[in-house]
Every structure is written in C-alpha cells, then in structure tokens.
Amino acid sequence: ACELSLKVNFTLLDKPPKKIVVYLDEDEFHSTWLGNKAIYRTRMAIADEGELIILAPGVQRFGEDDQVDVLIRKYGYIGTPSIMKHMAENEELKTNLSAVAHLIHGSTEGRFSVTYCPGHLRREEVEQVGFQYGDLSEMSERYNRATLNDGWNTERGPGGEDVEYFYISNPALGLWAVADRFESSNEERHLVSESCENVLAQRQEAAGGSGGVGGWAKPP
Q1: What pLDDT, on a 0 to 100 scale, did the predictor assign at position 219?
Q2: CB atoms < 10 A from the CB of 36, how many?
C-alpha cells in the first residue's frame, strides 16, 4: 500500500531544487491556512538552504476564521520547538490544537526560506509571521506563469548563466519529494514487512486468534 501510494501521489525528483516557485490560484487560495500547501507539499523536495517562492494573488489573510487569524498573527510560523513552548504556556493554543498543527506544518524549521508574494497583505504583516516578503507584480513578471511549464525551468543567474528552478502551478494536486528519500535496500523492506506481520499477529492472538474483522485487538 505504501509503495502504491508513493507511485500515485508523489512526483519524485532526481535532485532537490535550490528554488521552487509555486502559484496559488486566486479564486481558490485566500489565506495562508490553505496556501501553505505550497510549503508542506514541497518540503521533502526542496534543497537545504533553498528558497520557496509563493505567488499568491488571492491571499488576503492568514486564518480562515478570525480566531485562527489572530493566533497566526500573534505567534507566527516560528518552528516546532518554539510553537510547542508557546502551546505549553498559553491556554489559547492549548484549546486550539488545529492552529498549533497549522503553525508547525507551515514552518520550515530553518532548513529553507519562504518568500510569500501576496496580493492583499502588507510587507510588515508577512514578515511578522516569519516569512520573507516578495512584491507580487515584480515576481509575477519574473516568473510569468503563461510561459512556464510545470517542472524544471531556467532563468538567468547573476553571472548570465542558466539557473534551474522547479515550477508548480497547483500544489493541491500532489506531493513532491526527492526520490532518494524513499530508497531502501531489500533487507530493510523485509525487516519492515516482518515487523508489521509480527505486530498484527500479536494483536490477533490477543483478541482470541479470530482473524475476522471483529477479532482484531484495538490499538492501546
């Protein structure tokens, strides 16, 4: 099942892009709550110290509702350790775990940078939550989606050389990762399979050895 999911749901790249450019359709993505698909669906592909540029003409707020919008503005996408610390110390986060999960999913953990280019948020608003700000008009001219193909494209580097970057026109349509993140030896695959079989056998035995749907032990 895992191997089938990998084939069906993932676009596997041979190498990690140093730069990924993602476009968020303005009729679909109005908040970073939804738009951060651009982050968590590409994080397994982008290179260390890489840059993710998000063209977001429709983004005008952070949360989909006012309460979550306030929390995102207050705490920001500042990395898992800091967010977990804030959660331990603040009741408003303890009682809104969906916001906590969102803040973690939208954080880069310092591994790469995010340049958000929103249509309706100011620079100070974007930078306040931990992202870099990009001018939408300038970036849309530089990365003209009418001329781009999904996948690898090139631009002129500072020395006039061709520099590759990866373009995604809709992050909601899949997941992207570097292929070698999923490579494992036959021995490793065998050990994983054997471990799963042992766990299932133990749970079946604990439930009386039925083997039927009602005979499986519930997880602890």
Answers
A1: 40
A2: 26
DSSP conformation class of 94: H
Would you tell me how many other CB atoms lie within 10 Å of the CB of residue 39? 24
Average pLDDT score, the chain: 86
Over residues 115-173, the pLDDT tens digits come to: 999 999 999 999 999 999 999 999 999 999 999 999 999 999 888 899 999 999 999 99
* Torsion sign (Cα): 135, 138, 144, 149: negative
- Euclidean distance between CA atoms 46 and 61, whole angstroms: 25
Does residue 63 carry a pLDDT above 60? yes
Question: Tokens standing for 214?
Answer: 């009602």
Give first-to-last CA distance, the chain, whole Å.
23
Residue with tokens 């590759």: 164
Q: Report the C-alpha gap between 13 and 99 in whole angstroms.
A: 31
Token couple for 32: 């970073």
Q: Are 112 and 49 in contact (CB under 8 A)?
A: yes
pTM across the whole model: 0.81
Q: Residue 42 in contact with residue 52, Cβ under 8 Å? A: yes
SS3 8: helix
Residues 6+ apart with CB under 8 A from 7: none
> What φ, ψ does residue 73 adopt, rounded to 5°?
-65, -35
